[in-house]
Amino acid sequence: MKNYEIIFFDIDDTLFDFTKSEPLAFHQVFEKYQLVSNLELYKKSYEEINKQLWRDLENGKLSILELGSERFRRLFLAHDLELDAVVFNQEYLNFLGEQSHLVQGAKNVIRALSHKRLAVITNGYTAVQTARIRNSPFNGAFEHLIISESTGFQKPQTGIFDYAFDKLQIYDKSNVLMVGDSLTSDIQGGMNYGIDTCWFNPKRKENETSLTPTYEINQLESLIEMIK
Question: Is 10 one of the annotated active-site residues of the chain?
Answer without folding.
Answer: yes
